[in-house]
Write a structure and sequence with these properties.
about 350 residues; alpha/beta; 2 domains; 7-stranded mixed sheet
């Protein structure tokens, strides 16, 4: 049997990684061991690291002091079970560590391990492939890449629409090349909303080619935007300089400022004196819980599944699947993501099976 390994990320320098031997899962009654089969790596995982302390992402998979195991989304297979809730051989989609194996305490299809108590149920739920309405074998790579991001995009679109655009007439996204951003932009554009994309100069052509933004502007030209237009700002980049430029340009015409991600996690963060509304954190699991309460769980899943199926052709059109093998490949890709060295058209999938 291959040696169990963990990929560790330095909490204070996300581009710094190391591989470490892991203790094979030692099961107690009620627990199950899973082999990690495959997972995706996107800018979303960098955001998990950037907000790891604030939003407790480091808590899901404990690691040595100063290091963390950034969670990823993918597929895992039960190799041994001492739980009545899962059987060896079952395969699940869910929230995994960048490790060769891990253990859970399944309560139904949720992990009820003590260290995950109080964490969002969205991240603690595992969906068996055999019962998953969104699962198809031929779209596994796209599911790993887009499914967690698309759920956030779906909720951003719903949140802004449910709030009647906060009285604004356009929505502005930073990091417009990010999958979360352009999936939400597509949904908003389908509602007839004007959408503006902010991006780095090297990504302007890619973002324009998506066809979801009415206007695409490099970060250096933010001041050229019409500041008299009432706007909502959805901040995927998390770059303080970009955020300040948007707020200074729109001031009181910025009706809502929404902080979603931190793709530019290492950008300088000067003391901010922001005109207009102060940024509000968007935490997708909380919005999902509200909508489940509003609609019921079955209706929430039906709407999400319908939107997902409609989005799949876009996911396939905009993404070049790039597969890597093993945790060393994952270490290289994560470092590139954290350092901004990846292309927006690439969709990175790591296979350990």
């Amino acid at each position: 049997m291959a040696e169990a390994m963990d990929l560790l990320i330095k909490r204070t320098a996300l581009a710094e990684t190391k591989l470490a031997p892991a203790t094979p899962p030692d099961l107690a009654d009620g627990e199950a061991a899973l082999r990690v089969d495959a997972f995706s790596l996107t800018a979303n995982n960098v955001t998990y690291g950037a907000f790891g302390d604030f939003l407790k992402y480091w808590q899901f998979y404990p690691a040595p002091e100063g290091w963390g195991r950034v969670p990823v989304w993918g597929f895992a297979t039960v190799t041994e079970s001492r739980s009545p809730n899962v059987k060896a051989g079952e395969r699940f989609y869910g929230y995994l560590p960048m490790s060769t194996a891990f253990k859970i305490r399944p309560g139904g299809f949720a992990d009820e391990s003590p260290h995950r108590a109080g964490l969002s149920p969205v991240y603690n739920t595992y969906v068996p492939n055999a019962e998953d309405p969104l699962y198809t074998a031929e779209t596994e790579a796209l599911q790993m890449l887009f499914r967690p991001l698309f759920a956030t995009s779906f909720l951003i679109d719903d949140f802004i629409a449910d709030s009647a655009l906060f009285g604004a007439t356009q929505v502005i996204f930073s990091s417009a090349s990010a999958k979360t951003a352009y999936a939400a932009a597509q949904l908003l554009k389908a509602r007839g909303v004007k959408v503006v994309g902010l991006t780095s100069p090297g990504n302007v052509a890619f973002v324009k080619g998506l066809g979801f933004y009415d206007q695409v502007v490099p970060y250096s030209d933010i001041a050229s935007l019409d500041g008299s237009t009432s706007s909502v700002f959805v901040d995927i980049a998390g770059d303080a300089a970009v955020r300040l430029a948007v707020h200074q340009t729109f001031r009181d015409n910025l009706k809502y400022s929404c902080a979603v991600g931190a793709t530019h996690w290492d950008a300088p963060r000067p003391d901010e004196q922001l005109p207009g509304p102060q940024p509000q954190m968007f935490f997708a699991p909380s919005v999902a819980q509200k909508r489940v309460a509003d609609w019921g769980g079955a209706e929430f899943q039906r709407r999400l599944a319908a939107a997902w199926r409609a989005f799949l052709p876009t996911a396939a059109r905009t993404t070049q699947i790039v597969e890597g093998r093993g945790l060393p490949a994952a270490a290289s890709v994560f470092a590139d993501l954290a350092s901004g060295r990846t292309r927006p058209s690439d969709g990175h999938v790591i296979r350990l099976d």
